[in-house]
Amino acid sequence: MIKPLALVLALTALLVGCPSHNGAKLQSLAKLSEQPPVTARMDIQQWRTSGGTRVLFVSNRWLEMLDVRLIFAAGSSRDPQDKAGLALLTNALLGEGTELKDANAIAQGFDQLGAEFSTSSHRDMAIVSLRSISNDPYRRSIERNEREQCQPTHLARSLLLLTEVLGQPTFPEDALARIKNQLRAGFEHDKQNPGKQARTLLFKRLYGEHPYGHPSEGTEQSIAAITQADVQDFYQQAYNASNAVIVLVGNADDATAKYIAEQIASALPQGQKLPELPAPATPTAGKSHIEYPSQQTHLLLASLGIKRSDPDYAALYLGNQILGGGFGSRLTEEVREKRGLTYGIYSAFTPMAAPGPFIISVQTKAQQSEGTLELVQQILADFIANGPTEQELAAAKRELFGSFPLTLMSNADIAGQLGAIGFYDLPLDQLERFMQQVKQVSIEDIKAAFARHLDAEQLVIVSAGPTTGQQPLPPPGERIERVMPVPEH
Question: How far apart are alpha carbons 389 and 372 in whole angstroms?
Fold first, then answer.
């Protein structure tokens, strides 16, 4: 069991000295950097249901709440080639109707029970989540209800409604038409969003015909072609018990958790786990430009990155925090602070089931876009060649050691981490292992990892903005008015 308060106390113990007759004393950052990283030892229980569904469970009895999360290999990477957007539509239609209830009855049912039901769809995965009050074990409640004909608890009723939604969806035609119209409205909005257009083109350039290459929301043509039968077929294929991971976090004992997982898994269709995704081909480096009338230009620089299970994950994660993952990163200092070329710039690795993207994103004045692009490429090339300084590395480790425990402060946070562990088949001690790896990462480790995975001369580059005359960049230290980003939502 993990106690969120214990994480706060552990973090505080690092920042504040032990009490003495003189009172608590604040430690220096230098002293803090010598401390071992704060890690959360979670007692993760793992098993498979009678039908083979993998289950991960962490008992947390501090709050009378239970978080349930189902992760399916049912993201947009599973869309048929001519039906882009099918995965998103299927996920969005869960909760829109069952054989016994319409969407209003389902929403009111969860609301009256004080439960939160939600769905989300991504490239790798689709997620169904439930948070419910858990003041009495579900298993005993059901057994007592059958024996005494008494009212089942909030958790029992919430889970019964969840299994109905998961196991008996009808995907009503009117709801399908409504969500299609919402997507069409989004497509129209995207025509006025150069950042969105640039990102769509970037993924097409990076992945080509690979399943990651098309937009998750589909296109006007692909969405129009999707039928109710397509949705029902995708549900049967991808939302089956063998293609799911069940995560439970919160107020339940082991026996209750096993009973809940069994009931959920048995409500799902039976089927086969979907095959692993293929590896993407190496993309062709070079520039693409989208002409768009604007005062600003969006710049995206990208390369294929890593799978979530890659052994270089810790070194690349920490290195990227130094390069462009934080407010004090090198890209921020050189591009934003020293030259005022942008309001914000960031870089990120997104590890996925197949190698995900590494992307640097910046928005700048159109008249300085070419110089900004060259500057960013130069910073990246220097980082690949030389890595971070000792000072940058020490600062990044201190920040990560201090902030990481806060990512496990709630049941939902823990459920998210367990979902990644289960979906990507990572070791159960992945969180502890990651922090220990970060502690040991050296400058040479970061240089070697970046050199293995990135080449500053082989980037896919996409820009969106006007073709216009260019101005020289200001020298470092001379501030100019920062460019405010154009809203993209």
Answer: 23
